[in-house]
């Protein structure tokens, strides 16, 4: 089974404030069937950058062997990524981690809640959930109007609500502001975003079973270095911790301490 | 035919390449990438007496040609390592070296006693140089008298050879090496990480939750080479060299400086196949530079 490949950049475009969308092609896409997994990307030439960057999968087109990722330029690594042009190769390990467990989910009412760069993995998730005959409502939070992306993509699949911190687009405030009016008879929820948001969401939704996807600085990305761990809620848990890169990044909402 | 086998106290290595402690877990994760039996040896993550959770996150940060880590010796404790982690490594027919951590002489001694009794373990790497735990660890690695004392006590109970892992965070590395040599160390492993920091401009505070961390990767390679070279001029113990190795050329540099074998750490994160690739390419590379064997290369180094 291949776990690595030099994938070819097909497209790399500015999508929103400090946010880019990249499409990569290669046979590795055939393994990318579970939403919520991530690609571990090598950055730069040779050994100039010693750590890979974990970037979640936004969408996969299996027929054309194309995978889409969306990333924010935060430091020198993601800035390098934003400068790659079509035809260039990027070394990819992946898909890594465990995605959202949705195989059995069908004919359900679902709520998807994303914040900032936590939104991308929820797109592939929503696409799969809709294919499986579920009714999905999406709440997507961003800092400001210029940071909003994929609104139209989501609207084609789900009833979609946009929230911005400053109110320049959609509702003003936090994603949690909308939850009381939308959670009604929801069967499950799925969320990805900053830890503070996940904390607020899981509190607000504590009577509904849900899954959350965590972000953390990673070392190896394969479970060997113990850089990205978090504690379990259950104090009697045998290990007492989970590795985000390997056991996650998706966890049950009440499994780990946020 | 270039001979890349190396014979060291307790360790018959089919090649001089081993993953460095802390960068390879207990081997399981890397076994999905290649056959672990190709490795010269495996150095497992540090064992302490009780299980430890380690530090808060973030625990890692990238730096120029390197990285900082402050994991904090997370491990399930020596007994669980023996019962749950070591059996997995048994079928691979690779010598396993256990890194031994601790916060007190008593803890080092107890861990060494228990883990050296395991038939799977061929040698110990005494970790007196972890910069990321609040107590113990590094103070044993920066004071020659303490280093000698803990080495002597561990030697009394260990049934396997003891390689002492030296910290580079000292002004006189040769004094440290000589101190553990006279205390009965069977070998040295060097260097551990250099203490460093990195700041988050947005949060206006240290990037690592532990504030400081250990710097590793190509950025520290020249420091490692210099220290190995200095120690080799004065000390006869075998040296397992490490610090930023990413290629066969790097391995040869370490052998020339005076190392007898090498460990590869941070590079495993960037390329999980790196150890296997270096092992495959090493014979031809040695030949290219005119060496008939790994030992030939080390010996030439000593004579510099």
TrEMBL record, chain A:
For this UniProt entry, the molecular function terms from Gene Ontology, in alphabetical order, are: 2 iron, 2 sulfur cluster binding; electron transfer activity; flavin adenine dinucleotide binding; metal ion binding; oxidoreductase activity
Needed cofactors: [2Fe-2S] cluster; FAD
Read off the Pfam families from this record: DHODB_Fe-S_bind, NAD_binding_1
Residues passing through the membrane, by range: none
Q: In which pathway does it act?
A: Pyrimidine metabolism; UMP biosynthesis via de novo pathway; orotate from (S)-dihydroorotate (NAD(+) route): step 1/1
Q: Which UniProt keywords apply?
A: 2Fe-2S, Electron transport, FAD, Flavoprotein, Iron, Iron-sulfur, Metal-binding, Pyrimidine biosynthesis, Transport
Q: Where does [2Fe-2S] cluster bind?
A: 220, 225, 228, 245
Do you know which CDD domains this protein is assigned to? DHOD_e_trans
Question: What InterPro entries would the database entry show?
Answer: Cyt_c3_hydrogenase_gsu, Dihydroorotate_DH_ele_sf, Dihydroorotate_DH_Fe-S-bd, Dihydroorotate_DHASE_ETsu, FAD-bd_FR_type, FNR_nucleotide-bd, OxRdtase_FAD/NAD-bd, PyrK_electron_transfer
Which residues does the UniProt record annotate as the domain FAD-binding FR-type? Answer: 2-102
What does the cofactor section's free text say about binding?
Binds 1 [2Fe-2S] cluster per subunit.
Q: Which domain of life is it from?
A: Bacteria
Binding annotation for FAD: 53-56, 77-78
A GO biological process of this protein is: 'de novo' UMP biosynthetic process
Matches recorded under NCBIfam families: PRK00054.1-4
Q: What does this gene product do?
A: Responsible for channeling the electrons from the oxidation of dihydroorotate from the FMN redox center in the PyrD type B subunit to the ultimate electron acceptor NAD(+).
Q: What is known about its subunit structure?
A: Heterotetramer of 2 PyrK and 2 PyrD type B subunits.
Q: Which family does it belong to?
A: Belongs to the PyrK family.
Protein name listed in UniProt: Dihydroorotate dehydrogenase B (NAD(+)), electron transfer subunit
Species for this entry? Salirhabdus euzebyi
Query: Lineage from the top down?
Result: Bacteria, Bacillati, Bacillota, Bacilli, Bacillales
TrEMBL record, chain B:
Q: How is the cofactor bound?
A: Binds 1 FMN per subunit.
- GO annotation, biological process: 'de novo' pyrimidine nucleobase biosynthetic process; 'de novo' UMP biosynthetic process
Q: What's its top-level EC category?
A: oxidoreductase
What does the record give under GO molecular function?
dihydroorotate dehydrogenase (NAD+) activity
Annotated metabolic or biological route of this protein? Pyrimidine metabolism; UMP biosynthesis via de novo pathway; orotate from (S)-dihydroorotate (NAD(+) route): step 1/1
Identify the residues that bind FMN. Answer: 21, 45-46, 99, 127, 165, 191, 217, 243-244, 265-266
* Keywords, ordered alphabetically: Cytoplasm, Flavoprotein, FMN, NAD, Oxidoreductase, Pyrimidine biosynthesis
* Superkingdom per UniProt: Bacteria
Q: Which residues does the annotation say bind substrate?
A: 45, 69-73, 127, 192-193
> Which cofactor names does the annotation list?
FMN
Enzyme Commission number, as recorded: 1.3.-.-
Family (UniProt): Belongs to the dihydroorotate dehydrogenase family. Type 1 subfamily.
Instruction: State the function annotated in the UniProt record.
Output: Catalyzes the conversion of dihydroorotate to orotate with NAD(+) as electron acceptor.
Q: Which residues form the active site?
A: 130
From the Swiss-Prot or TrEMBL record, give the protein name.
Dihydroorotate dehydrogenase
Question: Taking the first listed entry, what is the main subcellular location of this protein, grouped into a coarse class?
Answer: cytoplasm
Cellular component, GO annotation: cytoplasm
User: Which species does the entry assign this protein to?
Assistant: Salirhabdus euzebyi
List residues of the Dihydroorotate dehydrogenase catalytic domain.
Answer: 5-286
Q: Which reactions does this protein catalyse?
A: (S)-dihydroorotate + A = orotate + AH2; (S)-dihydroorotate + NAD(+) = orotate + NADH + H(+)
Instruction: Cite the record's note on assembly.
Output: Heterotetramer of 2 PyrK and 2 PyrD type B subunits.
Instruction: Tell where it localizes.
Output: Cytoplasm
